């Protein structure tokens, strides 16, 4: 078990994010250029100031060349990071370590995914080339599996899940970079065609194009770029070692990787009561039920209370613990490699007080971002805050 | 003495009412239903299930040869018997061979197995016949053919029936045929087939057998006339004087359909199951000539669970309409899933054959945790390379959790994906089959069944799914 921490050693001084959506008019390279230049302009730096870069992409590109080519980043080290849906956060994490050890002062982290050029609905299945093991699995199918536990033990219903979708659609309707900017009704969500029981169409995030970028610097020089920079407070990445469906004795009441990643991140900065101490959370709502399970795994509420918490609006924009005020993966979209960095973009802008006032949360100083990927078995938690 | 040590039959869960075919095709209905193999079944998977039921209670290491008979082998160039032997988890040293191209190939396998046992080259030979023939739309074959498999263990000890003699006739008559270029069988005019084929040959072979062994009609308590026409069966009984009510074996044509090379063995298995000790059975299998056998049931039949009649399986699912049948059989062009199909790997399937095809798992010798598929390092205690291989196919399990998935391609959606815990604790993330989606429940008991998963990279991938225990 790790005992160290990265608290306040690395700062974020600039960020960028393209419009997420069906970006038929933009190539992957177009989106990379948009996100990178927005971040560099935000930080007030030139491409030549960048000493090293990390690029997060799962299926739309390979190698550091995916970033070097569109940005003409000549002669610097660029690492490609792939870790399922946690790729973006893992890129930030590795870039932060490079800064913290003193190797670099200014680096670029960029995540992107161009999913809408495949002609397919949903994600390409490149990671599942196994001819027998895992066969029959789809993303909504594998993420839906805790439903039996929550429906049978804790009174959760399709309506409970629909409330999460309605919330995230509402939040997305207030965000002009979101894929969907439309509210939906509870009835619409409940009655939508089933994709993988109990998940209907509105319980599933869309297939989205997008890119997002961050400029990370060492804390010592952060102030030279801007006053309202933010600091990296904690970062953790946990991989469970066997796909949940094959894991002996696994109880489908939790995705343990999240639980363990959260505990590790809380340890790093001494969080004991996340609801009291965190102001804002962006979590991995690839499916409505994933958001529900994650509430529990992040320690925001007990499994017994999760239905009541959702019913009472606890996680809504105006609630005690606002979750996914950006619209989440559900409304903002989920270009896999970009998502983790996009979440930090939301926290960065919220801490700076720069988002549309309709969804600006008051006095945000500490925010958490969470991703969960794979069967699922890969989770990351990243906490950022004002210095 | 050579004879039958055990019997097993398998017929698939789906039934299609013939009147539904008649409705779709605007023709008359033959009446009754036909058994329809599921989209993940073929003659190999059904043979595995039939053999599993036959060898239940027999140590697999005793089986020294396996013969597979079928007109509908999945491959033209690749043996099916070896895959069946792997699916049933027989030892590597087993002799395997296919017999094909005739509805008599199942009976031919019986003769060859008898010869092998008599010669002493094998003590126990499993024969299995399995077919899933498809008649062209609107034809009588479409209604008449059903899918199924049967298996017999031929041995010289522990017999439920001895085989006391046989007689054969060869005939190259063109009654029903299918060239290697055609997708469906063709036939000559039915009056010709019935009089010069079914009737003439069957009568001749029975007469030949009775003369050879100096038997009379009264010597037989049961007659199994595996000729693909019920009226001809009646006619033959009448012409010899066999009492139809008491002696003629049920044909299963109205509850299963004619199952090709499997049918003679299927009817014989049913006759043995219902027989009394010392009953003599006349068994005739028609096809490119005919074979006749005389069998004598032993006293062991009383103590042996020889299974139920092949048409009384625990549960059937009646297809709602002809379109479902077309989709299951791949007879209607449907849009492919909007997902890329990834190439598979023959070397991969070969390397993992013990786990994927035999369905072995592993048990950690340090902490006892059972895991699937094979592992090098234990999930629970992290011990390295300290496992024993365990057999999972015959274990029962229960559903831990599941989903009904409309995204994963499946001819009759939704596809059911489950997490199953097998007896002993091994967890397997697996597809469920042969179930009505509304009947799936958590904690539901399931059994393992051998299925064809997919044909990516242009070859068939056989492995295991779960299905309900009714």
Largest sheet of chain A: 9 strands, mixed
Tell me the number of helical segments of chain A per DSSP (H or I, 4 or more residues long): 14
Q: Into which percent range does the helicity of residues of chain B fall?
A: 10-25%
Derived from helix and strand composition plus strand pairing, the structural class of chain B reads: alpha+beta
CATH superfamily of the largest domain in chain B: Thiolase/Chalcone synthase
The pair of chains with the biggest contact is: A-B, 44 and 44 residues
Binned, the helix content of chain A reads 25-40%
Describe this structure in words.
The complex is a heterodimer of chains A (387) and B (470). Chain A has 387 residues and is of the alpha/beta class. Chain A is 34% helix and 18% strand. Chain A is built from 14 helices and eleven strands. In chain A, the strands form two sheets. Chain A has a nine-stranded mixed sheet with strand order 3-2-4-7-1-8-11-10-9, with helices on both faces. In chain A, strand 5 and strand 6 form a beta hairpin. In chain A, helix 3 crosses helix 14 and helix 6 packs across helix 11. The radius of gyration of chain A is 19 Å and the shape is globular. Chain B has 470 residues and is α+β, with helices and mostly antiparallel strands. Chain B is 25% helix and 28% strand. Chain B has twelve helices and 22 strands. In chain B, strands 5-4-6-7-1-8-13-12-11 form a nine-stranded mixed sheet, with helices on both faces. Chain B starts with a strand and ends with a strand.
């Amino acid at each position: 078990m790790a005992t160290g921490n990265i608290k306040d050693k690395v700062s974020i001084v600039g960020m960028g994010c393209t419009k997420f959506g069906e970006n038929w008019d933009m190539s992957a390279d177009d989106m990379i250029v948009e996100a990178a230049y927005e971040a560099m302009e935000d930080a007030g730096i030139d491409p030549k100031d960048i000493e090293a870069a990390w690029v997060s992409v799962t299926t739309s590109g390979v190698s550091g060349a995916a970033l070097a080519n569109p940005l003409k980043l000549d002669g610097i080290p660029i690492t490609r990071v792939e870790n399922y849906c946690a790729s973006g956060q893992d890129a930030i994490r590795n870039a932060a370590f490079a800064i913290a050890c003193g190797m670099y002062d200014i680096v670029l982290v960029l995540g992107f995914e161009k999913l809408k050029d495949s002609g397919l609905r949903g994600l390409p299945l490149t990671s599942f080339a196994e001819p027998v093991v895992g066969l029959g699995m789809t993303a909504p199918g594998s993420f839906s599996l805790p439903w039996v536990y929550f429906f049978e033990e804790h009174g959760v219903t399709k309506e409970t899940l629909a409330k999460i979708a309605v919330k995230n659609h509402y939040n997305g309707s207030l965000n002009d970079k979101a894929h969907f900017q439309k509210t939906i009704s509870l009835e619409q969500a409940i009655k939508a065609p089933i994709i993988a029981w109990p998940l209907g169409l509105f319980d599933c995030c869309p297939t989205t194009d997008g890119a997002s970028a961050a400029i990370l610097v060492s804390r010592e020089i952060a102030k030279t770029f801007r006053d309202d920079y933010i600091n990296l407070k904690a970062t953790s990445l946990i991989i469970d070692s066997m796909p949940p469906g094959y894991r002996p004795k696994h109880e489908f009441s939790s995705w343990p990787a999240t639980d363990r990643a959260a505990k590790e991140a809380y340890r790093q900065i001494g969080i004991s009561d996340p609801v009291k101490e965190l102001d804002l959370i962006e979590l991995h709502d690839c499916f409505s039920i994933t958001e529900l399970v994650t509430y529990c795994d992040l320690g925001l509420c007990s499994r017994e209370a999760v239905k009541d918490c959702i019913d009472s609006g606890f996680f809504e924009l105006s609630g005690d613990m606002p979750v996914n005020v950006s619209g989440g993966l559900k409304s903002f979209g989920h270009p896999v490699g970009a998502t983790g960095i996009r979440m930090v973009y939301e926290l960065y802008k919220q801490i700076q007080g720069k988002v549309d006032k309709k969804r600006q949360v008051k006095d945000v100083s500490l925010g958490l971002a969470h991703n969960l990927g794979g069967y699922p078995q890969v989770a990351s938690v990243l906490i950022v805050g004002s210095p | 003495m050579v004879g039958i040590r055990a019997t097993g039959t398998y017929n698939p869960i789906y039934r299609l009412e013939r009147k539904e075919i008649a409705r779709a095709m605007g023709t008359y209905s033959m009446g009754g239903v036909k058994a329809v193999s599921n989209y993940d079944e073929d003659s190999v998977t059904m043979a595995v299930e039939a053999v599993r039921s036959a060898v239940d209670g027999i140590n697999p290491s005793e089986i020294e040869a396996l013969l597979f008979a079928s007109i509908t082998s999945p491959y033209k160039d690749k043996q099916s018997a070896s895959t069946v032997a792997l699916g049933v988890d027989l030892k590597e040293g087993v002799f395997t061979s296919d017999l094909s191209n005739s509805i008599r190939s199942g009976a031919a396998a019986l003769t060859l197995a008898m010869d092998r046992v008599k010669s002493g080259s094998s003590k126990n030979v499993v024969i299995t016949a399995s077919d899933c023939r498809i008649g062209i739309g609107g034809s009588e074959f479409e209604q008449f053919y059903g899918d199924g498999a049967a298996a017999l263990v031929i041995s010289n000890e522990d017999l439920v029936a001895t085989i006391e003699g046989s007689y054969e006739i060869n005939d190259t008559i063109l009654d029903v045929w299918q060239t290697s270029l055609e997708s469906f069988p063709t036939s000559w005019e039915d009056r010709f087939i019935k009089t010069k084929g079914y009737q003439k040959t069957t009568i001749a072979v029975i007469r030949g057998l009775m003369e050879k062994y100096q038997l009379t009609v009264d010597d037989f308590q049961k007659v199994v006339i595996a000729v693909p026409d019920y009226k001809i069966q009646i006619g033959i009984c009448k012409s010899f004087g066999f009492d139809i009510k008491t002696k003629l074996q049920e044909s299963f044509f109205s509850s299963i359909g004619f199952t090709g090379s499997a049918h003679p063995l299927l009817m014989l298995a049913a006759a043995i199951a219902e027989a009394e000790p010392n009953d003599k059975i006349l068994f005739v299998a028609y096809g490119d000539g005919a074979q006749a056998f005389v069998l004598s049931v032993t006293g062991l039949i009383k103590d042996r669970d020889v299974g139920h009649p092949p048409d009384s399986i625990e549960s059937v699912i009646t297809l709602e309409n002809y379109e479902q049948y077309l989709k299951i059989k791949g007879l209607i062009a449907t849009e492919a899933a909007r997902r890329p199909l990834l190439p598979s790997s023959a070397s991969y399937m070969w390397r993992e054959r013990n786990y994927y095809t035999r369905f072995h798992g592993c048990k950690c010798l340090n902490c006892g945790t059972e895991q699937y598929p094979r592992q090098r390092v234990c999930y629970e205690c992290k011990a390295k390379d300290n496992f024993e291989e365990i057999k999972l196919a015959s274990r029962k399990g229960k559903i831990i959790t599941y989903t009904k998935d409309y995204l994963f391609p499946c001819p009759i959606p939704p596809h059911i994906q489950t997490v199953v815990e097998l007896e002993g604790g091994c967890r397997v993330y697996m597809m469920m089959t042969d179930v009505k989606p509304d009947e799936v429940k958590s904690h539901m008991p399931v059994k393992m069944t051998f299925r064809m998963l997919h044909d990516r990279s242009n070859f068939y991938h056989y492995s295991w799914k779960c299905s309900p225990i009714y």
